[in-house]
């Protein structure tokens, strides 16, 4: 074995153009959601901002919800299983680190949080996808033993608490503009979730 990695296949000009167009759509979508809100934005708004036609938009996405899902997934792609909170007596530091990362993520991209929140409230399909993500988290926590000795019902409660607290605090900060101390909020969420994950 020589130790050299296999060379990645070169992208064709067409592939690069397709990726660039997709990136323009995502950028346009985020700008449109930030300016007008998820509910008011149409596919035509996003396509116009991206400088493409409606047909080209639909070559890449099946609607504005798909654009928002891709924005969320792309932004969160840097997260790994190691970032997930862990239960048990020594799990508190991992829970705190998780909430720190979540708070920093959403406060650095408030327009993404706002659009996600609006989409869950107004779009049944998007809300169902959000619940599917929560269900996937329950399954993942069971698989990796995030809460040693916990039942599925206990894990489900902890996942629900985690999502609810993040949503409530982010809504207060980013939508209502209610001043909260970052450290105190992270400590409160950590204490509450840690209590359910013991």
UniProtKB/TrEMBL annotation:
<dbReference type="InterPro" id="IPR023772">
    <property type="entry name" value="DNA-bd_HTH_TetR-type_CS"/>
</dbReference>
<dbReference type="Pfam" id="PF00440">
    <property type="entry name" value="TetR_N"/>
</dbReference>
<dbReference type="InterPro" id="IPR001647">
    <property type="entry name" value="HTH_TetR"/>
</dbReference>
<keyword id="KW-0804">Transcription</keyword>
<dbReference type="InterPro" id="IPR036271">
    <property type="entry name" value="Tet_transcr_reg_TetR-rel_C_sf"/>
</dbReference>
<protein>
    <submittedName>
        <fullName>Uncharacterized protein</fullName>
    </submittedName>
</protein>
<dbReference type="GO" id="GO:0000976">
    <property type="term" value="F:transcription cis-regulatory region binding"/>
</dbReference>
<dbReference type="GO" id="GO:0003700">
    <property type="term" value="F:DNA-binding transcription factor activity"/>
</dbReference>
<dbReference type="InterPro" id="IPR041669">
    <property type="entry name" value="TetR_C_15"/>
</dbReference>
<dbReference type="InterPro" id="IPR050109">
    <property type="entry name" value="HTH-type_TetR-like_transc_reg"/>
</dbReference>
<dbReference type="Pfam" id="PF17918">
    <property type="entry name" value="TetR_C_15"/>
</dbReference>
<keyword id="KW-0805">Transcription regulation</keyword>
<keyword id="KW-0238">DNA-binding</keyword>
<dbReference type="InterPro" id="IPR009057">
    <property type="entry name" value="Homeodomain-like_sf"/>
</dbReference>
């Amino acid at each position: 074995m020589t130790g050299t990695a296999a060379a990645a296949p070169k992208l064709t000009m067409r592939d690069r153009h397709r990726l660039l167009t997709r990136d323009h759509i995502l950028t346009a979508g985020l700008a449109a959601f930030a300016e007008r809100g998820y509910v008011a934005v149409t596919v035509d708004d996003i396509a116009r901002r991206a400088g493409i036609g409606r047909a080209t938009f639909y070559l890449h996405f099946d609607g504005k919800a798909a654009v928002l899902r891709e924005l969320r997934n792309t932004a969160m792609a840097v997260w790994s299983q190691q970032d997930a909170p862990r239960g048990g007596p020594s799990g508190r530091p991992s829970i705190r680190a998780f909430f720190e990362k979540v708070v920093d993520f959403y406060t650095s991209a408030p327009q993404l949080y706002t659009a996600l929140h609006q989409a869950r409230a107004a779009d049944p399909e998007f809300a169902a996808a959000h619940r599917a993500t929560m269900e996937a988290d329950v399954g993942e926590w069971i698989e990796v033993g995030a809460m040693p000795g916990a039942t599925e019902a206990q894990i489900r409660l902890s996942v629900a608490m985690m999502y609810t607290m993040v949503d409530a605090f982010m809504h207060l900060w980013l939508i209502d503009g209610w001043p909260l101390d970052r450290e105190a909020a992270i400590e409160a969420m950590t204490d509450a979730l840690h209590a359910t994950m013991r």
